Amino acid sequence: MSTPVLDQTPDIELWQLVRMGNLQAYGEIYERYWETLYESAYWRLYDKSAAKDIVQEVFIFCWQKREEIQITQSVEAYLRVAVRFKILNHLKSEQAREKYRLLAGRELPEITHSTEESIAGADLQATYHKELQRLPEKMRQLFIDSRDHGLSIREIAEKHALSEQTVKNQLSSALKKLRAGLGNYLLD
Questions:
Q1: Which of 29, 44, 105, 146 is most exposed, with minimal Cβ within 10 Å?
Q2: What value does the CA radius of gyration of the chain take, rounded to a whole number of Å?
Q3: Dihedral of the CA atoms 121, 125, 128, 130 (nearest 10)?
């Protein structure tokens, strides 16, 4: 339940309070956006449990990293993009991928994006590509083979004449570097 003062407070001001550890402000943001984020996740996954988990993970992440996350435009757009990335990570898991294939025959709802979401998405994409270019050449190539081309660790190792362990180590290092560079966006 919203407190009378906070329910009139603009999102950006609430976020500033959250960054200072104000649990009531965090609760207000949660109350404002939990349901719409859940619905958005559900319509992309058709899985109530996974949708709830994803939204909860986003809110937990936001609380844990509140001092580092800087939102200057729209709290809602930030949360929507965070949920979208969590959904993408979820779909990458083998079990979820198989379930998604079975559901692919269903007609998916048309998804529209607000201007704020488009700006947040474009900003994230630009930052991702900048951070990707900062990786050492060989590491970047292995990462692109894995993520963009969908090659397995074994296939990458064979393609580049490397051991599978070397490929695993390089991918792990690439992810760590990208996570550090995308701290405000990447939730895994």
A1: 105
A2: 19
A3: -130
- Is the full-model pTM beyond 0.85? no
Q: Which two tokens stand for residue 106?
A: 């269903």
Q: At what angle do helices 137-147 and 164-181 cross, to 10 degrees?
A: 90
- Distance, CA of 188 to CA of 179 (rounded, Å): 8
Angle between the 23-45 and 75-92 helix axes, to the nearest 10 degrees? Answer: 50
pLDDT, block means (10 residues), the chain with 188 residues:
67 89 91 91 87 92 87 86 86 63 59 64 74 88 83 88 92 85 59
Longest distance between any two alpha carbons in the chain, whole Å = 64
Token pair 């993009």: residue: 81
Alpha helices, DSSP H, located in the chain: 11-19, 23-45, 48-64, 75-92, 94-103, 115-134, 137-147, 153-160, 164-181
Q: Which of 70, 86, 95 is nearest to 15 (CA)?
A: 70
Q: What are phi and psi of 20, to 5 degrees?
A: -90, 5
Query: What distances in angstroms separate CA 125 from CA 42, 81, 104, 132, 187, one per listed residue?
Result: 24, 11, 26, 10, 15
Identity of the amino acid at 38 = Y
**Rounded to whole angstroms, how far apart are CA atoms 91 and 9?**
35
